[in-house]
Amino acid sequence: MRLVVKWVSIVKFRGVREGVLSNLAGINILVGRNGSGKTTVLEAVHLALTLTDSFEFLVKRRGWFGLASIDTLFYRCSREARIIVELADRTRQELSLRVERRGETARMVRLEARGRRTGVSDILVYRDGRVVASKLGVAHNSFLVDWNIASSLGASESIYAEMLVHGGFSAKEFLLDMLRSKTGSVRSVEPIRVNNEWILHLVYTDHAIPYYVAGDGIRYALACLMTLVAHRDSVLLLEEPELHLHPGLMKLIAHAIIASYRRRGNQVFVSTHSVELVDMLVREAARNNLGDNEFRIYWLALEDGRLSYTSYGLSNASEALEEMKHWLYN
After folding, report:
1. What angle (nearest 5°) sits at the alpha carbon of residue 82, between those of residues 78 and 84?
2. Any residues with CB less than 8 A from the CB of 288 and at least 6 apart, and which?
3. 246-305: per-residue pLDDT in tens?
Protein backbone atom coordinates (compact mmCIF):
# COMPACT_ATOMS: atom_id res chain seq x y z
CA MET A 1 0.00 0.00 0.00
CA ARG A 2 1.72 3.17 -1.21
CA LEU A 3 -0.61 5.82 0.13
CA VAL A 4 -2.10 5.49 3.60
CA VAL A 5 -3.33 8.91 4.76
CA LYS A 6 -5.02 11.04 2.06
CA TRP A 7 -5.91 14.04 4.21
CA VAL A 8 -6.09 15.14 7.82
CA SER A 9 -8.50 17.57 9.49
CA ILE A 10 -7.58 19.19 12.82
CA VAL A 11 -9.90 21.14 15.10
CA LYS A 12 -8.73 22.75 18.36
CA PHE A 13 -5.74 20.46 18.78
CA ARG A 14 -2.52 22.01 20.13
CA GLY A 15 -2.03 25.39 18.44
CA VAL A 16 -4.38 24.69 15.54
CA ARG A 17 -7.93 26.04 15.85
CA GLU A 18 -8.88 24.56 12.49
CA GLY A 19 -7.18 23.32 9.37
CA VAL A 20 -7.08 20.63 6.71
CA LEU A 21 -4.04 19.20 4.95
CA SER A 22 -5.15 17.42 1.77
CA ASN A 23 -3.78 15.63 -1.30
CA LEU A 24 -1.12 13.94 0.80
CA ALA A 25 1.55 11.99 -1.06
CA GLY A 26 3.78 9.02 -0.35
CA ILE A 27 6.48 11.40 0.92
CA ASN A 28 5.32 14.63 2.58
CA ILE A 29 7.80 17.35 3.57
CA LEU A 30 6.41 19.90 6.04
CA VAL A 31 8.24 23.23 6.11
CA GLY A 32 7.47 26.65 7.54
CA ARG A 33 8.40 29.07 10.26
CA ASN A 34 8.51 28.13 13.94
CA GLY A 35 4.98 27.79 15.29
CA SER A 36 3.43 27.13 11.87
CA GLY A 37 1.86 23.81 12.90
CA LYS A 38 4.38 21.27 11.54
CA THR A 39 4.71 19.29 14.77
CA THR A 40 0.97 19.53 15.45
CA VAL A 41 0.27 17.85 12.09
CA LEU A 42 2.69 15.02 12.91
CA GLU A 43 1.16 14.52 16.34
CA ALA A 44 -2.42 14.68 15.02
CA VAL A 45 -1.78 11.99 12.39
CA HIS A 46 0.05 9.80 14.89
CA LEU A 47 -2.65 10.09 17.55
CA ALA A 48 -5.51 9.44 15.10
CA LEU A 49 -3.81 6.25 13.88
CA THR A 50 -2.56 4.88 17.20
CA LEU A 51 -5.23 6.20 19.62
CA THR A 52 -4.51 5.47 23.29
CA ASP A 53 -1.24 3.70 22.43
CA SER A 54 0.43 7.07 21.81
CA PHE A 55 -1.52 9.35 24.16
CA GLU A 56 0.98 9.33 27.04
CA PHE A 57 3.95 9.66 24.68
CA LEU A 58 2.46 12.73 22.98
CA VAL A 59 1.55 14.36 26.29
CA LYS A 60 5.06 13.95 27.70
CA ARG A 61 7.31 14.22 24.65
CA ARG A 62 7.65 18.01 25.02
CA GLY A 63 8.33 17.62 28.72
CA TRP A 64 6.08 16.91 31.71
CA PHE A 65 5.13 20.05 33.63
CA GLY A 66 2.18 18.80 35.61
CA LEU A 67 -1.46 18.80 34.64
CA ALA A 68 -0.92 21.87 32.47
CA SER A 69 0.63 19.40 30.00
CA ILE A 70 -2.85 17.99 29.42
CA ASP A 71 -4.34 21.42 28.85
CA THR A 72 -1.82 22.14 26.08
CA LEU A 73 -3.36 19.36 23.99
CA PHE A 74 -6.31 21.68 23.41
CA TYR A 75 -6.38 24.97 21.54
CA ARG A 76 -6.08 27.76 24.09
CA CYS A 77 -8.82 27.26 26.70
CA SER A 78 -10.82 24.70 24.73
CA ARG A 79 -12.06 21.54 26.38
CA GLU A 80 -12.47 19.45 23.23
CA ALA A 81 -10.42 18.61 20.13
CA ARG A 82 -11.17 16.60 17.00
CA ILE A 83 -8.93 14.90 14.44
CA ILE A 84 -10.07 13.10 11.29
CA VAL A 85 -7.87 11.24 8.82
CA GLU A 86 -9.10 9.74 5.56
CA LEU A 87 -7.24 6.61 4.54
CA ALA A 88 -6.35 5.15 1.17
CA ASP A 89 -9.37 2.86 1.10
CA ARG A 90 -11.62 5.92 1.61
CA THR A 91 -12.45 4.95 5.17
CA ARG A 92 -12.04 7.54 7.90
CA GLN A 93 -10.63 7.35 11.39
CA GLU A 94 -12.26 9.99 13.58
CA LEU A 95 -10.99 10.92 16.99
CA SER A 96 -12.37 13.28 19.61
CA LEU A 97 -10.71 14.29 22.87
CA ARG A 98 -12.68 15.97 25.62
CA VAL A 99 -11.70 17.08 29.12
CA GLU A 100 -14.38 15.55 31.34
CA ARG A 101 -13.01 16.67 34.67
CA ARG A 102 -10.56 19.30 35.83
CA GLY A 103 -9.00 19.24 39.26
CA GLU A 104 -5.83 19.93 41.20
CA THR A 105 -4.73 16.29 41.41
CA ALA A 106 -5.90 14.72 38.13
CA ARG A 107 -7.48 15.24 34.73
CA MET A 108 -10.02 12.96 33.11
CA VAL A 109 -9.87 12.97 29.31
CA ARG A 110 -12.41 11.03 27.27
CA LEU A 111 -11.10 9.70 23.98
CA GLU A 112 -13.72 8.54 21.46
CA ALA A 113 -12.76 6.81 18.22
CA ARG A 114 -14.88 5.93 15.20
CA GLY A 115 -13.68 4.16 12.08
CA ARG A 116 -11.33 1.22 11.72
CA ARG A 117 -11.12 1.29 15.49
CA THR A 118 -14.25 2.33 17.38
CA GLY A 119 -14.48 2.73 21.10
CA VAL A 120 -14.27 4.98 24.13
CA SER A 121 -11.45 5.30 26.64
CA ASP A 122 -11.51 7.39 29.81
CA ILE A 123 -7.93 8.45 30.42
CA LEU A 124 -7.02 9.47 33.97
CA VAL A 125 -3.83 11.53 34.25
CA TYR A 126 -2.39 12.32 37.67
CA ARG A 127 -0.31 15.30 38.65
CA ASP A 128 2.78 13.12 39.09
CA GLY A 129 2.53 11.99 35.48
CA ARG A 130 0.88 8.60 35.95
CA VAL A 131 -1.55 7.71 33.17
CA VAL A 132 -4.29 5.10 33.44
CA ALA A 133 -6.19 4.27 30.25
CA SER A 134 -7.96 1.37 28.59
CA LYS A 135 -6.40 0.41 25.25
CA LEU A 136 -8.26 0.88 22.00
CA GLY A 137 -5.65 -0.65 19.72
CA VAL A 138 -4.46 1.00 16.52
CA ALA A 139 -6.18 2.00 13.29
CA HIS A 140 -2.96 1.71 11.31
CA ASN A 141 0.75 1.25 12.06
CA SER A 142 2.29 4.64 12.78
CA PHE A 143 5.69 5.51 14.26
CA LEU A 144 6.92 8.96 15.29
CA VAL A 145 10.65 9.58 15.73
CA ASP A 146 12.04 12.66 17.46
CA TRP A 147 15.17 13.56 19.39
CA ASN A 148 13.60 12.40 22.68
CA ILE A 149 13.35 8.85 21.35
CA ALA A 150 16.94 8.95 20.12
CA SER A 151 18.18 9.89 23.60
CA SER A 152 15.83 7.80 25.81
CA LEU A 153 17.17 4.60 27.35
CA GLY A 154 15.41 1.59 25.87
CA ALA A 155 13.80 3.37 22.91
CA SER A 156 16.55 2.64 20.41
CA GLU A 157 16.82 -0.95 21.61
CA SER A 158 13.10 -1.32 20.90
CA ILE A 159 13.50 0.15 17.40
CA TYR A 160 16.38 -2.26 16.77
CA ALA A 161 14.21 -5.21 17.85
CA GLU A 162 11.34 -4.03 15.61
CA MET A 163 13.76 -3.76 12.72
CA LEU A 164 14.76 -7.41 13.08
CA VAL A 165 11.21 -8.65 13.73
CA HIS A 166 9.68 -6.83 10.76
CA GLY A 167 12.62 -6.69 8.37
CA GLY A 168 14.86 -9.57 9.35
CA PHE A 169 18.54 -9.80 8.47
CA SER A 170 18.05 -8.02 5.14
CA ALA A 171 16.83 -4.87 6.92
CA LYS A 172 19.90 -4.89 9.15
CA GLU A 173 22.21 -5.44 6.18
CA PHE A 174 20.60 -2.51 4.38
CA LEU A 175 21.12 -0.37 7.50
CA LEU A 176 24.77 -1.38 7.81
CA ASP A 177 25.47 -0.80 4.12
CA MET A 178 24.15 2.74 4.45
CA LEU A 179 26.13 3.41 7.65
CA ARG A 180 29.36 2.09 6.19
CA SER A 181 28.94 4.23 3.09
CA LYS A 182 29.10 7.41 5.19
CA THR A 183 30.91 6.51 8.41
CA GLY A 184 33.35 3.91 7.08
CA SER A 185 34.45 2.74 10.52
CA VAL A 186 31.19 1.29 11.93
CA ARG A 187 31.15 -2.45 11.29
CA SER A 188 27.88 -3.41 13.00
CA VAL A 189 25.16 -2.40 15.45
CA GLU A 190 24.48 -4.90 18.22
CA PRO A 191 22.82 -5.06 21.66
CA ILE A 192 25.41 -6.06 24.28
CA ARG A 193 24.52 -7.02 27.86
CA VAL A 194 26.22 -4.71 30.36
CA ASN A 195 25.44 -4.88 34.09
CA ASN A 196 22.21 -6.79 33.42
CA GLU A 197 21.05 -4.23 30.81
CA TRP A 198 20.86 -4.84 27.07
CA ILE A 199 22.46 -1.72 25.60
CA LEU A 200 22.71 -1.01 21.89
CA HIS A 201 26.36 -0.64 20.81
CA LEU A 202 28.17 0.62 17.76
CA VAL A 203 30.70 -2.05 16.88
CA TYR A 204 34.01 -1.10 15.27
CA THR A 205 36.86 -3.34 14.07
CA ASP A 206 38.59 -3.53 17.45
CA HIS A 207 36.09 -2.18 20.00
CA ALA A 208 32.46 -1.29 20.70
CA ILE A 209 30.90 1.75 22.35
CA PRO A 210 27.40 2.21 23.79
CA TYR A 211 25.02 3.98 21.47
CA TYR A 212 24.30 6.52 24.23
CA VAL A 213 27.85 7.88 24.36
CA ALA A 214 28.21 8.22 20.59
CA GLY A 215 27.92 11.64 18.99
CA ASP A 216 24.49 13.29 18.89
CA GLY A 217 24.40 13.14 15.10
CA ILE A 218 25.09 9.42 14.73
CA ARG A 219 22.60 8.61 17.50
CA TYR A 220 19.72 10.49 15.90
CA ALA A 221 20.66 9.31 12.42
CA LEU A 222 20.68 5.71 13.61
CA ALA A 223 17.25 6.03 15.28
CA CYS A 224 15.80 7.49 12.08
CA LEU A 225 17.49 4.94 9.83
CA MET A 226 16.36 1.94 11.88
CA THR A 227 12.78 3.23 11.81
CA LEU A 228 12.87 3.78 8.05
CA VAL A 229 14.09 0.23 7.33
CA ALA A 230 12.16 -1.57 10.10
CA HIS A 231 8.58 -1.24 8.88
CA ARG A 232 6.41 -1.97 5.87
CA ASP A 233 3.15 -0.34 4.77
CA SER A 234 3.25 2.00 7.75
CA VAL A 235 3.10 5.73 8.42
CA LEU A 236 6.50 7.04 9.53
CA LEU A 237 6.75 10.54 10.99
CA LEU A 238 10.17 12.15 11.45
CA GLU A 239 10.54 15.40 13.35
CA GLU A 240 13.54 17.44 12.19
CA PRO A 241 15.74 14.46 11.28
CA GLU A 242 18.51 16.89 10.32
CA LEU A 243 19.29 17.69 13.98
CA HIS A 244 23.03 17.40 14.80
CA LEU A 245 23.83 15.88 11.39
CA HIS A 246 26.76 16.73 9.15
CA PRO A 247 25.99 16.81 5.39
CA GLY A 248 27.08 13.22 4.81
CA LEU A 249 24.66 11.80 7.35
CA MET A 250 21.93 14.18 6.17
CA LYS A 251 22.33 12.83 2.65
CA LEU A 252 22.10 9.32 4.05
CA ILE A 253 18.79 10.17 5.77
CA ALA A 254 17.43 11.61 2.50
CA HIS A 255 18.38 8.41 0.67
CA ALA A 256 16.74 6.25 3.36
CA ILE A 257 13.50 8.26 3.30
CA ILE A 258 13.07 7.73 -0.44
CA ALA A 259 14.08 4.06 -0.14
CA SER A 260 11.62 3.51 2.72
CA TYR A 261 8.81 4.68 0.47
CA ARG A 262 9.91 2.87 -2.68
CA ARG A 263 11.17 -0.41 -1.23
CA ARG A 264 9.01 -0.90 1.86
CA GLY A 265 5.79 0.88 0.91
CA ASN A 266 5.86 3.32 3.82
CA GLN A 267 4.22 6.72 3.77
CA VAL A 268 6.70 9.23 5.23
CA PHE A 269 6.10 12.62 6.83
CA VAL A 270 9.08 14.86 7.57
CA SER A 271 9.06 18.19 9.41
CA THR A 272 12.18 20.25 8.83
CA HIS A 273 13.78 23.69 8.85
CA SER A 274 16.73 22.56 6.71
CA VAL A 275 17.05 23.87 3.17
CA GLU A 276 19.91 21.41 2.68
CA LEU A 277 17.80 18.39 3.65
CA VAL A 278 14.89 19.46 1.43
CA ASP A 279 17.28 19.98 -1.49
CA MET A 280 18.79 16.52 -0.93
CA LEU A 281 15.31 14.96 -0.78
CA VAL A 282 14.27 16.70 -4.01
CA ARG A 283 17.40 15.48 -5.80
CA GLU A 284 16.97 11.93 -4.48
CA ALA A 285 13.28 11.88 -5.47
CA ALA A 286 14.15 13.10 -8.97
CA ARG A 287 16.81 10.39 -9.35
CA ASN A 288 14.12 7.85 -8.49
CA ASN A 289 11.67 9.36 -10.99
CA LEU A 290 8.97 10.05 -8.41
CA GLY A 291 5.85 11.89 -9.53
CA ASP A 292 4.06 14.88 -8.02
CA ASN A 293 1.56 12.52 -6.39
CA GLU A 294 4.43 10.67 -4.69
CA PHE A 295 6.49 13.58 -3.38
CA ARG A 296 5.10 16.85 -2.07
CA ILE A 297 6.35 19.82 -0.06
CA TYR A 298 3.88 21.71 2.14
CA TRP A 299 4.72 25.24 3.25
CA LEU A 300 2.59 25.65 6.38
CA ALA A 301 1.34 28.86 7.95
CA LEU A 302 -0.69 29.46 11.09
CA GLU A 303 -2.63 32.69 11.63
CA ASP A 304 -4.98 33.11 14.57
CA GLY A 305 -5.08 29.33 14.88
CA ARG A 306 -6.09 28.72 11.28
CA LEU A 307 -3.79 26.35 9.42
CA SER A 308 -3.13 27.06 5.75
CA TYR A 309 -0.54 25.83 3.28
CA THR A 310 0.98 26.06 -0.16
CA SER A 311 1.69 22.73 -1.81
CA TYR A 312 4.54 21.97 -4.23
CA GLY A 313 5.09 18.81 -6.26
CA LEU A 314 8.45 17.56 -7.43
CA SER A 315 7.99 19.42 -10.73
CA ASN A 316 7.96 22.82 -8.98
CA ALA A 317 9.92 21.96 -5.84
CA SER A 318 12.49 24.62 -6.78
CA GLU A 319 9.88 27.25 -5.88
CA ALA A 320 9.61 25.82 -2.36
CA LEU A 321 13.39 25.85 -2.00
CA GLU A 322 13.54 29.49 -3.09
CA GLU A 323 10.81 30.34 -0.58
CA MET A 324 12.79 28.63 2.18
CA LYS A 325 15.99 30.46 1.20
CA HIS A 326 14.16 33.78 1.11
CA TRP A 327 12.76 33.14 4.59
CA LEU A 328 16.14 32.00 5.91
CA TYR A 329 18.36 34.72 4.49
CA ASN A 330 16.06 37.77 4.64
Report:
1. 160
2. 258, 262
3. 898 999 999 999 999 999 999 999 999 999 999 999 999 999 999 999 999 999 999 999
The range of the structural domain enclosing residue 301 comes to: 5-141+231-329
Q: Quick check: is 188 in a domain?
A: no
Residue 101 falls inside a structural domain: yes
Q: Is 310 left (phi over 0), alpha (psi -120 to 50) or beta?
A: beta
The DSSP code for 66 is: T
Is there a domain that residue 170 lies in?
Answer: no
Question: Is the model's pTM score more than 0.85?
Answer: yes
Give the span between the Cα atoms of 140 and 25, in whole angstroms: 17
40 backbone dihedrals φ, ψ, rounded to 5°: -60, -40
Q: Which residues pair with 238 in a beta bridge?
A: 145, 270
- Identify whether the C-beta of residue 300 lies closer than 8 Å to the C-beta of residue 37: yes
What is the C-alpha to C-alpha distance for residues 280 and 252, in angstroms, rounded to an integer? 9
